[in-house]
Design goal:
It is a single chain. The chain has 19 helices and 24 strands. With 608 residues, it is α/β, with parallel strands linked by helices. Bound molecules: 5-amino-5-deoxy-1-O-phosphono-D-mannitol. 5-amino-5-deoxy-1-O-phosphono-D-mannitol binds next to α10.
Length: 608
């Protein structure tokens, strides 16, 4: 996820662009840059690191111009270096562009353009857009962008300027956000509303497959086919602070609602055009997969729960034994590993000290290590033998939400990749599961839109001091995660437990009115879990069940039901966890807790 800005008007664009970038820094901050039109030339300044570095360079060079574009980067293709920082330019430095998104067919386009003599200067997917525009440019920038976007596959919000036009920005959007702020003879472009809000509250939201020509005289919007689109002005009522969270009260809630997108983005680079699983950065070919005798997963906290889900997917589909270890325990347990062991380290930040120590331990014993992370350039990407990225975008809330579902989806697809290589699932079965995976974003959307009952339950139980979260099979990691979320943001004691293990001790904790959250989705252990519900109910517990749509019988037995759509049993974990995130969120809010920055916690735990 990156942030883009643009300005055209009668003021100096530089402070406006810098102010906009500041508001977008949450979208990524490994490098930043701007391009400003000045005296028939485009001056480009780019720096590695957060905005402070660009600020210094700008203060030194003092660029000036009434037209400009800017970018803050969160690297996806290519390391965070000056060459890879945006804006990118064409061969003649006549066209500059900034881009947010991923161009999926960039390798093919790049090869083609290089064949036609274009010289590339970065490792990014974005640079192909500048060269494509150059290829189509014959004096009409708008048309050139229109032809260029026609060749692009993937997602993009982009802004382009040319040294031939002192007062023109051309923008285009597909699957990445873009807004245009409307001022008096001046216009602002940004990835989201907060970046323009100090200048105007009148906004055009560009929709998918729309593009616009922006000059100080006005904005002209068309679809990609060139048909004019009349836009309604959105009058923003949010304060600047609310706008940073897109109108959500907290980053955590915003991030919960971003989950359908996070899943989609994570899936995007893991299937090729023919729908086959693709893990390019992983450095683990099919031959290596066939030699594997065991998989060891190491992770902490929420990432550990993703590991528990992955264990079931890998064992069930690829038939490889999997061990899941808490990173902080792993290296002190003298783990048995060798060159036929694949170690998977899951860490959204890529910086968790315990997990990194586990990586070193696994490597020292000859295992091949793959890192699953959300942050390009993080330490794990340098230490692991191969990397699989999730593309959830930066997660600001301390509680992991969208990074968890992204890890799960990456691991599901990885498990299928192993199964295909080892021939443990038929092509038909793999295709059927793949289809179900592709339905997940819509299904999560459905859960998010039906949160009324979750709010009601949270209101009722907000003052309870003890909670039980129970699950079996694929429901167990979900129960553990539900308990962790509740503990960390609402400070309520919550015990996550295997439902069948209750009778060996924890059942003694149950008293009248103690709430038990039970993951009771459709599964091979459904009857068993219904039995467990009866056991705790008979001892006075109130029951909140997470169940599959259509299971109306359960309503007769429990106090509240959070329904989720039906899917393949192993995939149901990703859906069942969503109502529990919302439940923890509403519990914490009802109790007046700061959900984004819970006490005693940090987003990355870089100490042992
Ligand atoms: O960055 P990581 O995924 O390695 O972080 C691991 C845990 O610290 C993290 O999941 C933590 O448990 C979260 N705060 C849970 O919401």
């Amino acid at each position: 996820m990156c942030g883009i800005v643009g300005y055209v008007g009668d003021k100096n664009s530089v402070p406006i662009l810098m102010g906009g970038l500041k508001k977008l820094e949450y979208r990524g901050y490994d490098s930043a840059g701007l391009a400003v039109f000045n005296n028939g030339k485009i001056e480009v300044i780019r720096e590695v690191g957060n905005l402070a570095h660009l600020e210094k360079a700008v203060a030194k060079k003092e660029p000036y111009g009434n037209l400009g574009i800017g970018h803050t980067r969160w690297a996806t293709h290519g390391r965070p270096t000056k060459e890879n920082a945006h804006p990118h330019t064409d061969c003649k430095n006549g066209i500059s562009i900034v881009h947010n998104g991923i161009i999926e067919n960039f390798l093919e386009l790049k090869k083609n353009l290089m064949g036609k003599g274009h010289i590339f200067r970065s490792e990014t997917d974005t640079e192909v857009i500048a060269h494509l525009i150059e290829k189509h440019y014959d004096g009409d920038l708008f048309k050139a962008v229109q032809y260029a976007v026609d060749e692009l596959e993937g997602s993009f919000a982009l802004a382009a300027i040319s040294r031939d036009f002192p007062d023109l920005i051309v923008v285009a959007r597909k699957d990445s956000p873009l807004v245009i702020g409307l001022g008096d003879n001046e216009y602002f472009v940004a990835s989201d509303i907060p970046a323009v809000l100090s200048h105007t509250k009148n906004i055009f939201i560009l929709e998918n497959h729309e593009m616009a020509k922006i000059t100080p005289r006005g904005v002209w919007v068309t679809n990609f086919e060139g048909k004019e689109v009349k836009k309604d002005i959105l009058k923003v009522k949010w304060s600047e602070e609310a706008a940073e969270k897109s109108g959500y009260e907290d980053f955590m809630l915003k991030e919960i609602y971003e989950q359908p997108k996070a899943i989609k983005e994570t899936m995007r680079d893991k299937f090729d055009r023919n729908g086959q699983m693709l893990f390019e950065g992983m450095q683990l070919g099919e031959e290596d997969v066939c030699k594997l005798k065991k998989v060891v997963i190491i992770a902490c906290g929420t990432s550990y729960h993703a590991g528990l889900v992955a264990k079931q997917a890998i064992e069930h589909w690829a038939k490889i034994p999997v061990e899941v270890d808490i990173s902080s325990e792993f290296r002190y347990c003298d783990p048995i590993l060798d060159e036929n062991t694949l170690a998977i380290a899951i860490t959204q930040s890529g910086e968790t000290a315990d997990t990194l120590a586990g990586v070193r331990e696994a490597k020292s014993k000859g295992a091949r290590v793959i890192g699953i992370t959300n942050v390009l350039g993080s330490t794990i990407t340098r230490e692991a033998d191969g990397v699989v990225y999730t593309h959830a975008g930066p997660e600001i809330g301390v509680a992991a939400t969208k990074t968890l579902v992204s890890q799960m989806v990456a691991l599901y697809i990885f498990a299928l990749y192993l199964a295909r290589a080892r021939n443990t699932l038929s092509d038909k079965k793999i295709s059927a599961i793949t289809e179900e995976i592709k339905n997940l974003p819509d299904q999560v959307e459905k859960i998010l839109s039906g949160n009324g009952v979750i709010k009601k339950a949270a209101k009722k139980y907000a003052n309870c001091t003890n909670f039980l979260f129970l699950g079996r099979g694929i429901g167990l990691p979900v129960a553990l995660e539900g308990a962790l979320k509740l503990k960390e943001i609402s400070y309520i004691h919550a015990e996550g437990y295997a439902a069948g293990e209750m009778k060996h001790g924890p059942i003694a904790l149950i008293d009248d009115g103690v709430p038990a959250v039970v993951v009771a989705t459709k599964s091979k252990v459904h009857e068993k879990i219904l039995g467990n519900i009866q056991e705790v109910k008979a001892r006075g517990a109130d029951i909140i069940a997470v169940s599959s749509f259509g299971d109306t019988e359960i309503e007769k037995v429990v106090d509240y039901v959070f329904y989720i759509p039906e899917t393949t049993e192993i995939l149901s974990a990703i859906l069942a966890v969503v109502p529990l995130q919302l439940f923890a969120y509403y519990m914490a809010k009802t109790r007046g807790c700061n959900v984004d920055q819970p006490k005693n916690l940090a987003k990355s735990v870089t100490v042992e």
